[in-house]
Specification:
With 447 residues, the chain is an alpha/beta fold. 37% of the residues lie in helices and 14% in strands. The protein has a domain of 224 residues: Amidase signature (AS) enzymes (Alpha-Beta Complex), CATH 3.90.1300.10. α8 crosses α11. The longest helix is centred in the last third of the chain and has 24 residues. The chain binds glutamine (GLN). Keywords: ATP-binding, Ligase, Nucleotide-binding, Protein biosynthesis.
Length: 447
């Protein structure tokens, strides 16, 4: 049935870069055989899903939506894929993204843009736009994405689905192609909060192959999900309603705050003065890390190789010039610049100091409150092409999502209404490290 949806809708939506039809049918048949033989199956067994194309699946082309990896077939599975295999998952295919997960609209894909299923003239958000669109269009029961600065939460908000960016270290990054290693996390995009808790329960947990993986991260996030928000203290940071926010988005968040109050929570306004510095700090630090991580794509070991080069220098130069797209090159240049000897103190070091201030600011708020409520993005889904010529205006859309990655915190993005054109509006619930269980409880109570 999902494959039928895919063949009916893909020409309009473009959520997938690769559809693994044969594999899906044969694993589904195997799972069904186990079922008819009376074997006890895990809850996700046989459920068809999609995986963002920067997460490695053995034997399946993994492109990062880049010409650089157009023909790359990984010889190993990411940790999350191994975990899902233990749950008898069924892979429908690999979903579209902004090249190397750099972007907020999925228009930076080398192969194709993805359209928002709620309005085909609009972007699905990004960079996990293919995953969000697939779930919203019924082309997958759930999907995995990655979130370095909002790439799960913002597309979830634009497409009206639920997305979780887990605590840094909760889900292994083994097999996720690195963008900015100290920010990247894998997480689920689903139709509702329960599904999300179910998928995170399957993929979270310790993995020794990721040196930042945390031992206490696993768990069953479904049990106790009905606990509600009675007596919980919720902070509403003033800085989340600054200039640039669409008034309809602000109204929907205020409505959500009242709804939580009605459910027995206590909502109070707070101030977090470090937040306005998060966006510049994010773009400095994430680009610095990206410039280092992407040094591995040199045309020698794997990936795209320019033809007819004389000498290794020309091979590096032309392979990278021809293999990477504009946005990726912009990040590499920006990152190399802020790390260079003459500018390191002024930019990279300063941004690291800001990072500490932001971490401390969140800690201070969580001493008095259980979680934070805020918008995911300042606007709803915009029209395709609207921001492609102005990268800075695209970056500004990340202003509410990046603080969470800077501080390594978990955040749940879920729908909280629609604007007058019927476009979904998303809110996010941000908690202290390893509070995913509580965030799911709050989200479930709200839903
Ligand atoms: N939009 C942000 C960026 O372009 C976040 C991307 C992400 O989370 N992968 O960097």
């Amino acid at each position: 049935a999902y494959l039928d949806e895919i063949s009916a809708k893909e020409k309009d939506i473009g959520a997938y870069l690769t559809v693994t039809e044969e594999g899906a049918l044969s694993t589904a048949a195997q799972v069904d055989k186990k079922r008819t033989q009376g074997e006890k199956l895990p809850p996700l067994a046989g459920v068809p899903m999609g995986i963002k194309d920067n997460i490695c699946v053995r034997g399946v082309r993994t492109t990062c939506a880049s010409r650089m990896l157009e023909n790359f077939v990984p010889p190993y599975d990411a940790h999350v894929v191994e975990r899902l295999a233990e749950h008898d998952y069924v892979l429908l295919g690999k979903t579209n993204l902004d090249e190397f997960a750099m972007g907020s609209s999925t228009e930076n894909s080398f192969f194709q843009p993805t359209h928002n299923p709620r309005d085909l003239s609009r972007v699905p958000g990004g960079s996990s736009g293919g995953s969000a669109a697939a779930v919203a269009a019924g082309e997958a029961a759930y999907a995995l994405g990655s979130d370095t600065g909002g790439s799960i939460r913002q597309p979830a908000a634009f497409c009206g689905v639920v997305g979780m960016k887990p605590t840094y270290g909760a889900v292994s990054r083994y097999g996720l192609v690195a963008f900015a290693s100290s920010f990247d996390q894998i997480g689920p995009l689903t139709r509702d909060v329960r599904d999300n808790a179910l998928v995170l329960s399957a993929i979270a947990g310790y993995d020794r192959r990721d040196s930042t993986s945390v031992d206490r991260a696993g768990g069953d996030f479904l049990s106790g999900i009905e606990a509600g928000v009675q007596g919980k203290k919720i902070a509403l940071p003033r800085e989340y309603f600054g200039e640039g926010i669409d008034p309809q988005v602000a109204l929907a968040i205020e409505g959500a705050a009242r709804r939580f109050a009605g459910l027995g929570a206590q909502v109070e306004e707070v101030s977090m003065e470090s937040l306005p510095h998060a966006l510049p700090a994010y773009y400095i630090l994430s680009s610095a890390e990206a410039s280092s991580n992407l040094a591995r794509f040199d045309g020698v070991k794997y990936g795209f190789r320019a033809k007819g080069c004389r000498g290794v220098e020309e091979l590096y130069l032309r392979s990278r010039s021809e293999g990477f797209g504009r946005e990726v090159k912009r990040r590499i240049m920006l990152g190399s610049f802020v790390l260079s000897a003459g500018y390191y103190d002024a930019y990279y070091k300063k941004a690291q100091q800001v990072r500490t201030l932001i971490v401390e600011d969140f800690k201070r708020v969580f001493r008095g409150y259980d979680f934070i409520l805020g918008p995911v993005a300042p606007t709803t889904a915009y029209r395709m092409g609207e921001k492609t010529r102005d990268p800075l205006s695209m970056y500004l859309g990340d202003v509410y999502t990046v603080p969470v990655n800077i501080a390594g915190l978990p955040a749940l993005s879920l729908p909280c209404g629609a604007n007058e054109d019927g476009l979904p509006i998303g809110m996010q619930l941000i908690g202290p490290a390893f509070s995913e269980g509580m965030l799911y409880q709050a989200g479930y109570a709200f839903e």
